[in-house]
């Protein structure tokens, strides 16, 4: 039985004040094309459908369009809520959706009944476990539930998984050892960690939450990653969908199909003169991509964003990397401050700000200003 594993659509997301709706619509249509080529039995969406618990009308319309296209193809669709979603909103209309083959995770109530599918190898039980916290699980048990691992372990134990069947779990958690990126929410001290051992009874665990595609200790426990890049820490990632096939019991295979976005996310570095030179960017897609520019000029360029935007139309972020920004000087103590002249103190301040010494002309100018200021106090 073949599934397309997706997660973390984050529909409605804005990045550096840019709406990504157009990019998300484009990539969803590309995913539909992949589905038409692969002809899977089902599509898994492992949480974070939306970027906010109360999504925009545009985001809801976009997800509606995607679901309609999946239903047209008579596919089974499995959807759970993630930490960015409202479980109640994702679960809305679930009983009606079931009839169309769209299975939405209900708000967690301590009981998870699998959706059973059949093929030539027997039964595949699909379990939908939305994002949960320990507090969500404590309401339904008298057992101690202190950690996220405890919470997921208890939820899994209550499923009474049949080891004779092939079992697939769709869930949205941070599994210990997964590599995060800047666009994910991080809990203090890693308190949201879930140990991979709790998934021992499943043939495949379709995970959501982590934005980079990766396995967690085993090929059967996998994050498919986001379909788009949502931070510059992901600029070098290769986005994809995961195609997973459950054959006979114990035989699971997966592969990825690359996703190419409408606009890529790229990081450019150099002096202002270098990155504005036509030979630097011609023949690339950088003028329309989402761009982060790091300038290495020692001096700030006046109105640099206004000068760069006519070349890089979707400039999202601008940084400087030079001696001033790399400064790691220490601030002196009170006794040391009192022992220095005003000129020496200003020279120290200049060095802290610019990571270099004042030249002779600057020193002479500051000395003159200080002397005039002191004369005015006499």
Polypeptide structure, described:
This protein is an alpha/beta fold. Helix content is 29%, strand content 24%. It has twelve helices and 19 strands. The chain has helices spanning 21-38, 57-72, 87-91, 94-99, 134-138, 148-157, 272-275, 278-281, 304-308, 334-338, 342-354, 360-377, and strands at 2-6, 14-15, 18-19, 42-46, 76-80, 102-104, 115-119, 122-129, 166-172, 174-175, 193-194, 204-208, 214-215, 221-223, 240-246, 252-258, 265-270, 290-295, 314-320. It has a six-stranded mixed β-sheet with strand order 6-5-4-1-15-16. It has a six-stranded mixed β-sheet with strand order 7-8-9-12-14-13, with no helix packed on it. Strands 17-18-19 form a three-stranded parallel β-sheet. Helix 1 runs parallel beside helix 2 and helix 11 packs across helix 12. It is elongated, with a radius of gyration of 27 Å. The protein starts with a strand and ends with a helix. 34% of the residues are buried. The model has no long low-confidence stretch (mean pLDDT 90).
How many alpha or pi helices?
Answer: 12
Helix content: 25-40%
Q: How would you write the strand order of the largest sheet?
A: 6-5-4-1-15-16
Question: What is the mean predicted local confidence, pLDDT?
Answer: 90
- The outline comes out as elongated
SSE-based structural type: alpha/beta
